[in-house]
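Table S5 (text form). Sequence records supplied for joint modeling of the two-component complex.
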Amino acid sequence: MKKYNMAKLFRSLKIQALFIFLFISAFVISTWFSGSFIYGGAEVGLFTYNPQRWFQISGYVWWDAVSPGQIIPHFITAQPLYFYFYILHLIGLSAQNIQQFIFFILLFLMGFGMFLLTFNIFDENKKKYALVAGLFYMFNAYTLIQVWHRFLYVNMFLAAVLPFLILFWRKWIKEGKLGYLTAFLLINFLSVYMYGNLAAVATVWFALSLLSVAEIIFPWQGRSNLKKISFRFLMGLIFWFLTNIWWITPTFSIGPGLLSAQHSSEDNLGTLVMISRQTIMPYLLQLVNPYYLFYQSELGLIYSNTFFKIMAWIISVVVFAGLIFGLRSKNYAKYSVIFLISVLFAKGAAAPFAYPYIFGFEYFYFLGVLRNPFEKLGIMLAIFGAILFAVGLQKLYKPVAVLVLVVLIGFAWPMFGGKIFGTKNLPVKVSIPESYKEADRWFKQQNENQGVILHLPFSGKDVVTYDWNKGYHGVDQNEILFSSLTSLSRSIGIKRVDDTLGGLTYIFTPPFAKDKKQILKILQNFNVKYIVLHKDIIWQDKDTYGDIGGLLKPEVIESVLDNLDFLKRERQFGQLVIYRLTDENYKQILRLTDDFQIIYPGGSNIMQIISLTNNNADLITPVSKKVDELALERAKQILIFPDKKIDYFESSPSAMVAKTNEIFNQLLQIREYFYSLGELQSEQITKDLILSTEKVSKLSSSEQVLEYEELMKKIFKEYSPNLNIHRLFNSQIAYILRWHLFVLNKIGAKPDIIKLIEDDAVKLELLPQYKNYGQVFKFTVPSKGDYELLAPDPGSGAEIRVNGESIVFKNHVVANKGDYEISYPVSNLPEGDIALKLKGIDDQLLSKGSVINFQRISPVLYSGTVVFDQPAFLLFAQTYHPDWILTLTKGGKSYRVDDHLMSNLYGNAWWVKEAGQYNFSIEFTHQRNVEKGIILAISASVFLILTQFYFQRKGTIKK
Amino acid sequence: MKYFWGVVIFPVFLVIFMLLEYGRMTVLASEVVQPLIFTLVIELIYLRVKRLPILWFASALFVLMVIFYLFNFLLLANWIGSLGFGMLFITISSYMPELFKHGLIEKF
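The corresponding structure-token record, covering 1067 residues in total, follows.
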């Protein structure tokens, strides 16, 4: 009877808790919205706006909606979430309603999930304290700042479901019932959006691993328990892997290459070291991120007030008491230990025991996902801290405990009233102007199924600032605002392509705007059909646009666009002006060309290249393979741009001393710069360079050189072109090395040390191989030829040098395959880059054939029919990627075209040698991994469910 | 023998703590203090000195950290706080055998 009453009591406590957390969540969320806006901008953009469009885009690893196309493998995890949003949208919920709903659910799950987890752990007579754990988890400083204020939905989802994941995982490894594993996997699937941030995988499995180990060893219950839990752990991991393989395979097969192109090892380490200065013990133990709370005071200056500082410590003291008391209880000791270990990991490279993290980041690139360890792993402090907080509170007198709870909720006051997001100046409230919706509707009415909308002004950045009703500052989301065609409005994070896109910033402004032919050519290259001019852009916003803002004045661009005869001004909606490219000038996404030139862009930027490729021929660039011989013969010209430009000015000793002093002072600032960024390797090299420069300047005889020589060997051993010291400051380093050589030569130092510095400096491209004069351009010539030098005339009497040898300017440079250095005199330096030109054929072929028809089946698959009258290039105006595969079919035989090159410095081009009519398909192959993964995940889920039924049935029969 | 090993483990742990903190042995004299104190804590635990006072000391360091933090002596607060956390971590780690055996620390 007693047992029945207790069970009833527990059940009622759960129901009471359910209503309490429902009420709190509803109350909190109701205070966040008081108008028709949504919270958006910053890094999340328009998360709940136009879910249908989000749903369409997120189903593919290739996003063509963001022209010219980019690979985003990890966002496929958002597909289930946008499916739910889409359904909510279909039943009539607005973007604001969906956001209110999702915030409410997430906040409720945080509190109730933590309650259930703690309820499951606590002793029978302490279960009511699980409510306290739920409240702590909802309102602690970490949740306040890192989950809500940080405003990243992946963090919100992770925080909401992690208590449930731990709860069911714990039940699974302890009891071994398949139902718990199924529940764990189901929750994973429902919240798979959180794995859009790969660090969430590390956080989840780090927490589950710690918990599993703790269950095995606290206390040790023999090998059979070890085997049992290890087996369940492994089984859980395998099923998790199988049911998530649909996003794991594309993410991990594409992601690493993509990430390494965007973040270097040094960037990761720098971020870690810099962030670790904010995760020092006085901040970490309060669970606060000082950057937002104190340095930027984003939640108000009140947090710098001593009273509020004491409030934070009152909460931490209770957690600390819980940690100590917890160690003395069999039920809680493991959570105290897990909390301590979590502190150790969440603090990153802060003291104590700082080095293991740094070591890990130096040698294991994949650890880069944890470069902000407090943000990624800190949620474990909130979860296990919540348990310890509830343990600590049990030891307090009730009135004091109530007071502590008041302090906890009082500290989180921005959670009430919607002041949690953004700052006073940037409140991240968004109200999308009606004109955008009208413009989108107008585009839909045009019934166009291909072509790109170019959004101007084009800043070359992925962030925009608009003067909307409540303002907008955050990621550019034109692909969501304009849903019928693809939008070209931002950079995509690939250096070569971003540089090419950068041309769109300049060509609509003087002096480049005069060249109408060039503008048309670029619009055609990017498959542009419409232009939308955003006159609502705040181009004066220096924080967003920097110095480039001056090029973005909409009025200037508007006057240029109005005067282009190949553009028609179609409509104006509010501050949006729409132009359309005339039909005869529009070029399709797929087309053939035999009018082309081969370009080796080297290190030159797009405007330099444009200025020297003054004809209409398409640009073809080899990426990994050589250009076919026949294509080389048929090219209009071959242009080779320099890989690198090095200044090497001879100057008088006194001028050198003055310049060296100036650069030495810069080095002192550079050292501070790297210190501030936490970039340890670059900082150390700068320090060593400063020291070695001091040493070399004091050398008076060759005998003193030994110590200096050791230092220089160390510098060159550590120096790498991948380091930021080289990327950002190589000209300063080069000059300092020249000063070193000057002194060493002057004092008659051993030739060995001089040779050491010279050889290493040349290898690192800090100094030219041939000690020429003036400006040195380094070229890589891919094949032998009679090259013409495309450059301004240096003037009469001036000579230029090729590999140290003087030539007369007008002469051609007969070059074999190899590396060349061409130098210009100081008195006649060219304004921009120079290039080597190999003249090709001038005559056009009469017919090249055409793309007869084609169909865009999906963003990753195109098919159609093409006729080649002659060997020609098939151009595909999507960002170049080696995994775009062209397959041609003729007479029942299919073959893959291997001559895959880059077109117009961003797109794809395939050289097809054999004439004829073909059926073709162009496919981005990584999407197939997703499809295979979905089949595997469904199979694994079905297998698990059937197994569960089988065991349940077996159990029932036995009973 | 106990004291012999006590002498032997001292430099070994000093090296370990130096490497854990800085990844190298060549550091400024002031930087050796924390690894030295951690080594002393290990030494005291090895010599079976009572651990409760060490825990009290670590807790006192946390109190000091809070005081210095409140008075905006952040560098000092950080140094004291990290010292306190290190001592706490080492001391609690020394209870691992008890935690393995009983799943809790019966007596500090």
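Note: The radius of gyration of chain B is 15 Å.
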